[in-house]
Amino acid sequence: MTLSASPAPAAAPAAAQIQAELAALLHRQSYGVLFANFAVVIPVAYVMHGSVPSWLLAGWAAAIYLLTAFRVGLTRGFLRRRVALSASRRHVLGFSALSWLSGLLWGLAGLAAVLSHDDMMLAFGCVMLAGMCSGAVPSLSAYPPAYAGSALGMLAPFTLACLAEGDGLHLVYAAFALCLLVVNMYFSAVTYRSLRTTVALRFENLALIGNLERERDRVAAADVAKTRFLAAAGHDLRQPVHALGLFTDILANRAAEGRISPQDALLVAQRQQTVLEGLNRLLDGLLDVSRMDAHLTRVERRRLDLDALFEALRQDYEPQALARGLTLTVLPTDISLDTDPALLRRILDNLLGNALSYTPNGRVLLCARRRAGGALIQVWDTGVGIAPDALETVFAEFTRGAGAPDAPPSGQGLGLGLAIVRRLAGLLGYEVSVRSAVGKGAVFSVWAPIEFPSR
Length: 455
What we know:
EC number: 2.7.13.3
Pfam family, one: HATPase_c
Number of helices: 12
Shape: rod-shaped
Low-confidence stretches: 1-12, 403-413
Protein name: histidine kinase
Strand content: 5-15%
Order of helices and strands: HHHHHHHHHEHEEHEEHEE
Helix content: 55-70%
Radius of gyration: 40 Å
GO molecular function: histidine phosphotransfer kinase activity; phosphorelay sensor kinase activity
Keywords: Kinase, Membrane, Phosphoprotein, Transferase, Transmembrane, Transmembrane helix
Mean pLDDT: 82
Structural class: alpha+beta
């Protein structure tokens, strides 16, 4: 079932939302490693000042401080702006590149420890790198490439320098660095999977909460609709029953007095018949909705010539139109459909009855034409029209438009006709739409595919 309404914007894919949340998590958790970059530089410089030229050590420390300050500013800006999905990937790549550069600066400190040819300094460099590399796991694992590049930048210069030395002690340190890299990469992957699962569960929970809220709203709306239905049904069903009682009392009183004429009896009977027809329409609407709610409505398709159906509708509704001073025009057609004749007749009955009810003067037109591989069946009227803000709700159950000439004084009614049209069209696989302008009438369209399965 489709209506003439603008589609809502599609929701962002779940994978993109997860990546964006991981990007935000990467920036939030980076404060730990950024603080370490600030805090550890001074003790490292203090320990290494006897083995590394002061100017080189000062330049190294200044580079780390400037880079870390720049990373802090970028991180704060990202978290403050909450960058859009399309831009978050660029920010993550930039963050990763800065992490790799920072790791390389720490790797240069490890390289200096190896080149000092001091065993104590070599051990210190290994411990320093192990601490920095392991401490970065929780901070950078929200995006594995960020951690992988940073860890390689830290450990590769130290490992290659140890391998270049070639003696037993340096080879042991190289093997330790390689094991450290493998173990930390493993824990980084485990942490990433854990973070991704947590974020995915969070979005699933939010979606579940949204579904529950929508279901709550639907139940609340159904409760309101039920209240409206009971009020409308109480009025619209009581009114014809009360009228029947009055007409019956008139007949009974006149019969008791012995002064009823055939003309009087005929007049009262005709009025009773009119009331019964209205009551029958109300009950038919209720039964239609009840059967569809209980999934008892069955679709029995066969070939149907629309022209024959249109002629039957013209014969049924033309007297009603003439009685109201309206012109009913039914255009001939050569279109045939594979459909359920009874359900399609019920759809057009509701549309024609609705058009006649809401057209105080002018004409009502029923026609069909081929359109987009199917048949477009339309009911036009020159009636009161529908306000733009009501086009979205005109097919809702228990909703009745204003301005019907035959509406009850209270303005209420069951408002099931167009709701039945929508639901029956859905059963048949048809599309229903409406165009209207206040004071200029309305056009209800039913698009039905033209297809005949092989027998």
